[in-house]
C-alpha cells in the first residue's frame, strides 16, 4: 500500500504545510469537494496505494494535474501520477514507507466520504490531517 524507491524516505517529513500555498485549507477542501462531487466515478486500492477514477470531462485532466501538483508541494511524502485513460482520468497516490504516511493515505482515500458540507476558514500554515 505504499510506494517507495528512495532510500531517503526517512528524511521526508510526514507533514502537510500550506505556508507557501496560494489557497487556504478551506479553499483546498472545497476544491476537493467540488472535484469529487462533479466527476468522481469510483476509487480503489492499488499495489502502490490508491486510485481515484474521474469522468474525463473537458478540462478535468488539467484540473486534477494542477491539484495533484499543489498537494505534492505541501505534502512531500506523497507520490502522485495522473493518467488519462479513455473516458477516465486516474489519480494514483502513494506514500513513503512510513506508518503515519500510510494512515494519511488511508484518510486521503476516505476524503470523498469525510469532507463536511462546510469548512471553517482558518489561517494558512501547517495542516494537521485527521487520522482515524
Order of strands, widest sheet = 2-3-5-4
Count of beta strands: 6
> Percent helix among the residues?
25-40%
Oligomer: single chain
Content of β-strand: 15-25%
Strand count, sense and closure of the main sheet? 4 strands, antiparallel
Name of the top-level CATH class of the domain at 41-114? Alpha Beta
How does the helix and strand content classify structurally?
A: alpha+beta
Distance between the termini: 17 Å
Count of helical regions:
3
Instruction: Kindly report the CATH topology of the domain at 41-114.
Output: Alpha-Beta Plaits
The name of the CATH architecture of the domain at 41-114 is: 2-Layer Sandwich
Secondary-structure element order, N to C: EHEEHEEHE
Shape: globular
Structural topology:
Layout lengths: L15 E2 L7 H15 E6 L4 E6 L4 H15 L3 E8 L2 E8 L3 H16 L11 E2 L5
Antiparallel strand pairs: 1-6, 2-3, 3-5, 4-5
Describe the structure.
The relative contact order is 0.25. The two termini are 17 Å apart. Residues 1-7 and 119-132 have low confidence and may be disordered. The chain has a domain at 41-114: Alpha-Beta Plaits (2-Layer Sandwich). 35% of the residues lie in helices and 24% in strands. The protein has 132 residues and is α+β, with helices and mostly antiparallel strands. A four-stranded antiparallel beta sheet has the order 2-3-5-4. The protein contains three helices and six strands. The chain has helices at residues 25-39, 60-74, 99-114, and strands at 16-17, 40-45, 50-55, 78-85, 88-95, 126-127.
Amino acid at each position: 500500500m505504499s510506494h517507495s524507491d528512495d532510500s531517503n524516505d526517512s528524511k521526508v517529513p510526514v507533514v502537510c504545510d500550506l505556508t507557501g500555498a496560494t489557497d487556504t485549507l478551506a479553499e483546498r477542501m472545497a476544491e476537493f469537494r467540488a472535484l469529487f462531487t462533479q466527476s468522481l466515478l469510483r476509487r480503489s486500492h492499488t499495489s502502490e496505494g490508491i486510485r481515484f477514477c474521474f469522468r474525463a470531462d473537458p478540462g478535468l485532466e488539467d484540473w486534477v494535474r494542477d491539484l495533484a501538483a499543489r498537494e505534492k508541494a505541501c505534502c512531500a511524502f506523497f507520490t502522485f501520477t495522473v493518467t488519462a485513460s479513455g473516458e477516465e482520468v486516474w489519480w494514483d497516490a502513494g506514500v513513503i514507507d512510513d506508518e503515519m504516511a500510510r494512515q494519511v493515505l488511508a484518510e486521503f482515500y476516505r476524503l470523498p466520504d469525510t469532507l463536511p458540507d462546510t469548512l471553517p476558514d482558518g489561517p494558512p500554515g501547517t495542516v494537521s490531517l485527521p487520522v482515524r
